[in-house]
Amino acid sequence: MNVFVAGGAGYIGSHTVRLLLEAGHEVTVYDNLSEGHASSVPVARLVRGDLADLDTLTAAMRAKPYDAAMHFAANCYVGESVTEPQKYYVNNVSNALNLLRAMRAADVGKIVFSSTAATYGTPVATPITESHPQQPINPYGRTKLMFEQALADYSRAYGIGYAALRYFNAAGAAPDGTLGEDHDPETHLIPLVLYAAMGKRDQVSIFGTDYDTPDGTCVRDYIHIYDLAQAHILALEAMRPGDRRTYNLGNGSGYSVREVIDTAAKVTGREIPHNEAQRRPGDPAVLVASSEKIVRELGWKPRFPHLESIIETAWRWHREHPDGYGD
Ligand code: UFG
Q1: What are the pocket residues of ligand 1 if the criterion is a CB atom closer than 6 Å to any ligand atom?
Q2: Residue pLDDT, tens place only, 90-149
């Protein structure tokens, strides 16, 4: 297939682009490089552009006969979405709708969308299945849910096919050590723990030790970036016009913040300096996925289901690229 990948130079996008190419698909990456890294994708496939610029976007999408789009070009920080909601509503909703406009103008009928566990809000049942109520508790989750709703309406009215993949906690790096996580600022737990191991940060803070969990710290379901990228290929290849699919993506095992720190200490053989801090607003105590649906329907089979192997690949990336992509 010929695939138009918005946000393909970001963390999850770049890994997916690599797997798309390995699977024999044609790829164009459309990215404004505000958070992505040009060197994480093949240079000849990169078109620098913004979703806000509808004319450039539509022209890029009309330049070739694309079979499908993928949408990774969103902002993704829960905390920032609370203090800067406008950024999230403008980019994750308004600019994202431009992608749907351009798809209609260019007659592209399928899309794989990066959705999130944050659309569920505080779980009323664990593990979370796709039919769990969606009641997001922060602007980030609300903007992602709004786009899911737009996709459903576009699908009913215009017949587009879509798969909304609701990610839990993406982590890890390409097994060969050549692609990895490089956010600025970094807010995610696993890279911050590894920065503390490397001495790039003095320590990592544990946000809250009084949650109703076995050791008092938050529990999350970590999924390897390779397995997450692979799910996009499966969803793309299975999709038919008019499909409305949603899939959770996690491993079904929860690990606490303390367990992440302990596992990272074991993997790296280093001490992880840490301190205990206040809860971070907007954090549910436990988020664990049921990914049975994608296993059953698409045959998804994670290659790195264990936290240790997720951290091992991340550690290799950070050790070999202490300054990330260096851009
Ligand atoms: N945490 C710490 N210290 C840190 C950073 C994080 O204790 O320095 C804790 C958080 O409080 C949380 C856990 O580690 O309990 C994981 O935090 P991350 O920031 O790594 O990830 P989140 O669970 O907040 O966010 C992830 C995705 C979001 C998505 C969300 C779904 O990054 O895009 O899951 O709720 F919205």
Answers
A1: 76, 78, 116-118, 140, 169, 187-189, 192, 204-207, 218, 220, 257, 280, 283, 287
A2: 999 999 999 999 999 999 999 999 999 999 999 999 999 999 999 999 999 999 999 999
